[in-house]
UniProtKB/TrEMBL annotation:
It comes from the Eukaryota. This is TTF-type domain-containing protein. Residues 92-189 form the TTF-type domain. Pfam families: DUF4371 (PF14291).
Amino acid sequence: MDKFLIKQPRSSSGPFVSSHVVPEAQRETITPSSSNVDCILGVGSLKRDPGGRKPIFEYDSNIRDVVRRHYILMGPYQPKLRVYPKTIFGTSNRQFNPEWFNAPNSAWLEYSIDDDAIFCLCCYLFKNEFESHGNARKSFTQDGFKTWNHGPERIRLHVGEVNSIHNKCLNRMLDFANQRQSIQSSLHKQSEKTKSDYRIRLNASIDVVRFLLRNGLPFRGHDESEDSNYKGLFLNF
Ligand SMILES: [Zn+2]
């Protein structure tokens, strides 16, 4: 199994980054897609900061899902800085507010240190499935958003109604994450069953040994070959 599971190194010495899509424990051990990404695109080719990412539609359609899984496993980029850059709007200074990372935006809202702007992870990953990229609006995906004096209002507008493009993308992203979890869960169940079967066989063998010893009976038969009708007491139990 280990050959299929490549340990993902912790993010480098950058700021603290939280994730809300995949639990930390899973991101540490379940990263087969990362090895695929490294093989196909070169180690470290996928940018963590959303500001400098290559648009998803520019990746070959054969590896697009690999790239998506990689970003979903990493979770939204949510650096917690002590101070965010200030921008003047009229007479006041405004900045990104890290409270915007909280629910209900926690699964998708990203902040780019490079661009001092916010982005949407799910729209970055899946918007091309719902809009042709020629028509797609780039705010929150390629261009980011940084008009901080209208932050909460524009975030609400981006999310939109139940059937909005954003919510469709969010559902697609959560489906992707759930697929991964269900595969892991079935692997876990399988290994639990193997362990349980082994325990049953082991306990049965111990019971037979105790019975034979207690009654002074021989373990072996005269002929323990496959064709033998009587292989001795231990093997015949
Ligand atoms: Zn979005």
